[in-house]
Specification:
Structural class: alpha+beta
Distance between the termini: 18 Å
Radius of gyration: 32 Å
Helix content: 25-40%
Shape: globular
Number of strands: 28
Strand content: 25-35%
């Protein structure tokens, strides 16, 4: 028999109930799309205040007014110092992150960043012109604040569109988003008074939207290619079905599983724009130099002209998707110079050659991780604004044609989804599934984490129990801890364990580790595969100070009069939720005492005359005996449960 004494160290909070309406937000680096699901209504895209189905993720502060969407985007060219764009690039990152360096050195945004010591994270400088109309008193914005403003705008346009206030949402993230970046997005949503039911990767949301009305009798692999503004992402997804039902009726349910992922940062449409902007800037510098007879400077150092050049490069790229050439005209670009230039599609492809060279790497990585080849694919779906670039589609066709063994059965580039809206619609449907307010068609979904996560535990050197010599070993079975040369000091004690391997399923059962210890500890949750992390990603995910172990051990030591109690046993449980965030969910410490109990003597065999009496017993008496026996069993159960229950 065991007697268990357990101390609860950490308790998880219960989540509040969801509201009746849910939105899916595809929060991209350049645009945001919002999809709304209401009881009794189909999924629909929310239009903004100017009736557009997508809104720029930009916020600007002009003359005491806060601008969003196209109004804020327009201010990027007129007042770039008072406008903030590409906000997701700043979330959860340091000022030395490669993406921040790119924004500073290659995109020529006037936005400056700094390290905020009080919060230990990146902050964005706020010119006086952006704060004085709001009372002033501060000189920087936190990235989460600016993102929260855009998310609040999403709530406002949803209320104007649907007539109801919406709090519950599901937000998309890129597959390369680290845990710290995801947590920063959740913090921004909290500032916007949004309740995030789950985060979902953009490609997974699109795959969910694709599978809503499709059921395949045989497993079917589909590759999703997503060329966005910042990065290119590819996912290999396998669709299948399973039967669910009762004895009366069976129902076939569609499901899909993400088998492999690949991504490439710095390969999206924005970087094609920057490559063309460099060409335009060089051409203008030549014109400027000729007009000023060698006394001109470099237009890249001027925020407003470069903002105009970026906007012109973006528009030129979009027009060249359908045309072979286009004139570029920028009136009064700088120093009273009207800029004119002819750009062809070949010029664009040559300027962006380094960017386009990365376009196929995500496909190769996704196939490799899925342990699949081009011959294993049954379809390809392309989404994202970047796939409109003809060169991207040409490279995709060439890649799949070269990898296909049966040349008579080529893979076509599927356009069955709305490339701009599919992730938002899939996110909204996922929100309806997660919410308790809807009954929707069931679709199974399995996604995985890309990076391995482990835990490292050390003694809390600031805890009193460690400062005074470490632990209470002398009070427990095993004797007093000796200070031999080969023994570890409290400062040297540590343990490591891998919690979630690369490819671990999101939302799987918690992982629990157990060990004997009697001092307070520090627990570090960190990535194991550092070499495979996106550049600039810190190794440590979270730090936990777990206290109460030493106090519990001291309390048990006072009760250990026989000296037979074992050392306290610590159990830590970790979860990897559906949003891809790992955390310590529960910590317990216990002491289990084992002791022997003499078995009762065997009962004597009944005599023959007793058997005869039993056979002549009435049915009522037999029933009473049976009930008494069951009562006896029930009397034993609570005592056993009480012995195992936590105190």
């Amino acid at each position: 028999m065991q007697r268990s004494v357990v101390a609860l160290l950490l308790a998880a909070a219960t989540a509040p109930l969801a509201s009746s309406n849910v939105i899916g937000i595809d929060f991209g680096t350049e645009f945001m799309k919002v999809a709304l699901v209401q009881p009794g209504s189909p999924l629909e895209i929310v239009t903004n205040t100017v009736s557009k189905r997508k809104s720029e993720t930009v916020v600007a502060f002009v003359r005491g007014e806060r601008l969003f969407a196209s109004d804020a985007y327009g201010s990027l060219s007129r007042k770039p110092e008072q406008s903030y764009a590409r906000l997701t690039e700043y979330l959860g990152r340091s000022e030395t992150h490669p993406s921040i360096e790119t924004l500073r050195t290659k995109s020529y945004f006037p936005t400056t960043t700094r390290f905020n010591e009080s919060r230990g994270a990146l902050a964005i400088a706020a010119p006086k012109s952006t704060t004085e109309d709001y009372g002033g008193g501060w000189d920087e914005w936190q990235p989460e604040e600016l993102v929260a403003m855009v998310l609040t705008y999403a709530k406002d346009i949803t209320r104007a569109y649907g007539g109801n206030v919406v709090r519950d949402c599901v937000i998309t993230v890129p597959m390369s988003a680290t845990q710290i970046e995801r947590e920063a997005l959740l913090a921004a949503a909290e500032l916007a008074d949004l309740r995030v039911l789950s985060l979902i990767e953009a490609n997974t949301a699109a795959a969910l939207q694709f599978g809503l009305d499709r059921k395949f009798d045989e497993p079917r692999k589909v590759l999703f290619y997503n060329a966005g503004s910042e990065s290119i992402q590819a996912s290999v997804v396998e669709y299948s079905t399973f039967v669910e039902g009762t004895k009366v009726k069976n129902k076939t349910i569609g499901q899909f599983e993400v088998l492999g992922k690949g991504w490439a940062r710095g390969a999206g449409g924005f970087h094609v724009d920057l490559a063309l902007a460099e060409t335009i800037a060089d051409a203008f510098n030549e014109q400027w130099k000729k007009k000023k007879k060698g006394k001109a400077g470099d237009v890249r150092t001027l925020a407003r002209p470069m903002a105009k050049i970026r906007a012109s490069a973006k528009k030129t790229k979009e027009v060249l998707s359908a045309n072979e050439k286009i004139p570029v005209n920028i009136p009064s670009l700088h120093d009273d110079i009207d800029f004119h230039m002819m750009v062809t599609r070949k010029d664009l492809e040559a300027a962006a050659a380094d960017v386009l060279a990365k376009a196929m790497q995500p496909v190769q990585d996704a196939l490799a991780k899925a342990n699949a080849t081009v011959d294993d694919l049954h379809g390809v779906e392309i989404i994202g604004g970047g796939v409109r670039v003809p060169k991207i589609q040409e490279m995709l066709r060439d890649f799949f044609a070269a990898g296909r063994t049966n040349k008579s059965d080529p893979l076509e580039l599927g356009l069955h989804l709305n490339g701009d809206e599919a992730p938002a619609l899939g996110a909204a449907f996922h929100g309806a599934n997660v919410s308790t307010s809807f009954r929707v068609r069931k679709v199974g979904m399995l996604d995985y984490a890309q990076h391995a996560l482990g835990v490292r535990m050390t003694n809390d050197l600031y805890a009193e129990s460690v400062r005074e010599g470490g632990g209470l070993m002398g009070f427990f079975k095993g004797g007093t801890k000796k200070k031999d040369d080969g023994d570890e000091s409290p400062e040297d004690w540590h343990k490591r364990a891998t919690l979630f391997k690369a490819g671990a399923r999101l939302g799987a059962k918690p992982r629990t580790i157990a060990f004997h210890h009697d001092a307070d500890i520090v627990c570090e949750l960190a990535y194991d595969d550092v070499d495979k992390l996106p550049p600039g990603t810190p190794k440590t995910v979270a730090l936990y100070n777990i206290s109460g172990i030493a106090a519990f051990a001291a309390d048990m030591a006072k009760q250990n009069t026989t000296g037979q109690l074992p050392r306290p046993k610590v159990q830590l449980s970790f979860t990897l939720d559906a949003s891809g965030i790992a955390s310590l969910s529960k910590a317990e410490v216990s002491v289990v005492e084992e002791y022997e109990v003499d078995a009762p003597p065997p009962k004597a065999e009944p005599k023959a005359e007793d058997n005869a009496t039993a056979e002549n017993a009435t049915e009522a008496n037999a029933t009473d005996d049976a009930e008494a026996a069951e009562a006896a069993k029930d009397d034993d159960k609570p005592a056993e449960a009480a012995a195992e229950a936590p105190t």
